[in-house]
Design brief:
Blueprint (H helix, E strand, L loop, with lengths): L3 E5 L5 H10 L4 E5 L2 H10 L4 E8 L3 E2 L1 H9 L2 E10 L3 E4 L10 E4 L1 H6 L1 H5 L5 E4 L3 H11 L4 E5 L1 H6 L3 E5 L8 E9 L13 E7 L6 H11 L3 E9 L7 E8 L3 H11 L5 E8 L16 E2 L2
Parallel strand pairs: 1-2, 1-3, 7-8, 7-9
Antiparallel strand pairs: 3-4, 3-11, 5-11, 6-9, 6-10, 10-16, 12-14, 12-15, 13-14
Length: 292
């Protein structure tokens, strides 16, 4: 029986691409309109796993998603760094000169603003999802209209990529978290686990954060992420989400032992193997490689 993965977005979205990278092609997806729905599916057991974007190398962190991790009985079992490549696609046989309108999610349109702006007569239409824009073009057989989306959307909906890699910044990455129901069992951490996501808050006193950071440095652990987040009901007080990278699980256990006395609350959101950042392909250097 293949697992079912809850993803934010629709079939052909970058969330589905990330799911394929982590789980392989043999799984079903449960498309969700919001990140909250993704987490609720996992927490309620209606899907085996969930996949949720947490940060982008250009746009930064998706702060509400950190809150979702804390408020629901889920934990992180993996991560995916996905190179985001945006393509212009349309019905087979369409050429650039045939186009007059481009549909996509506002963020995708923004990422491709330089290229799209060079075609000033095109009307840009914001939609709720990149892949859904591509699907609608196929379903409604709309000549003259293109979508900005990933290559999986073109494959699934039988569209042709008219211009490839039209995003302005070649090194555009989104980090996704892989979620499972329940809390992590640290006693069963595999030997190859080398990254963990934690949440903590301390007393609102001078030097309290330093007392957390010192053991991280002393134990030879890399602090790869430090994200503050407002504490509910505590005006101008903050909790912190951190990602730490280490060589052996024993280092993580030693760190937790040292952090408990210097934090008011400490929570392990997940321990997993860190993903490797895929390199930008050599040919993805200038946007708008016309394929026709």
């Amino acid at each position: 029986m293949h697992p079912t993965i809850a993803i934010q977005g629709f079939e052909g979205s970058f969330h589905q691409v990330a799911a394929r990278r982590h789980f392989g092609p043999d799984h079903a997806i449960a498309p969700c309109a919001t990140f909250g729905q993704v987490v609720r599916h996992v927490a309620g057991g209606t899907t085996h796993f969930g996949l949720m974007a947490i940060e982008n190398s250009l746009a930064g962190s998706i702060l509400p998603n950190y809150s979702l991790l804390q408020r629901h009985p889920v934990h992180v079992i993996g991560e995916v760094y996905l190179h985001i490549r945006q393509h212009l696609m349309a019905l087979p046989g369409q050429r650039l000169d045939d186009l007059h309108e481009v549909h996509s999610h506002p963020m995708a349109l923004l990422q491709c603003a330089d290229y799209l702006g060079s075609h000033g007569h095109w009307r840009l239409v914001e939609t709720e999802d990149t892949a859904l824009s591509a699907q609608r073009i196929r379903e409604h057989q709309r000549p003259g209209i293109a979508a900005v989306a990933g290559s999986l959307a073109a494959e699934l909906f039988d569209l042709e990529i008219v211009a490839a890699d039209i995003h302005a910044e070649p090194a555009n990455y989104t980090r996704f978290l892989v979620l499972e129901h329940g809390a992590p069992v640290l006693e069963e951490v595999a030997p190859d686990v080398n990254k963990a996501s934690l949440y903590f808050h301390t007393s609102h006193a001078q030097g309290s954060l330093v007392q957390v950071l010192l053991p991280i440095a002393r134990l030879g652990i890399n602090l790869s992420k430090l994200q503050s987040y407002p504490r509910t009901g505590r005006t101008w007080q903050y909790g912190f989400h951190v990602d730490v990278e280490f060589d052996t699980p024993a280092q993580l256990l030693a760190l937790l032992h040292e952090l408990r006395p210097v934090t008011e609350h400490l929570e392990v959101l997940g321990a997993y193997r860190r993903d490797v950042l895929e390199a930008v392909p050599a040919h993805v250097v200038s946007p708008g490689n016309v394929l026709q």
